[in-house]
Amino acid sequence: MKVPLHLAKEKEAQAVGFPPVAEVERQMRLLAEIDDYRKSARSLMVMLETCTKCGACAEACHSYLGTQDFYNIPAARADLFRKIYKRYFTFTGKTLSRFIGAEDFDAETIGRWVTYFYQCNECRRCAVYCPFGIDTAEITIAARHILTRLGVMPRFMTGIAANMTKTGNNMGIPKPAIIDSAEFMEDEMKEETGLDIKIPVDKPGSDILYIPSSADFFSNIDTMFGVAKMFHALGVNWTIPSTVLEAANFGLLFNLDVMKEQNERLRAAAADLGAKLVVQGECGHGWRAAKMYTEGAGGPVPFALVHVLEYAHAHLAKFKLSKLPWRVSLHDPCNYARAGDIIEQPRAILRACVTEFVEMTPSRERNFCCGGGSGLLMDEMMEIRMQLGKKKAEQVQELGQLDYLAAPCSICKAQLPHVMKHYGMEDLKMGGVMDVLGKALVWD
Amino acid sequence: MADYIEANGQKIEVDEDGFLVDPDTWNEEVVRIFAKVEEVSELTEDHWKVINYLRDYYKQFGIAPMIRKLCKDTGFSLKQIYDMFPSGPAKGACKLAGLPKPTGCV
Question: How far apart are CA B63 and CA B55, in angstroms?
Answer without folding.
Answer: 9
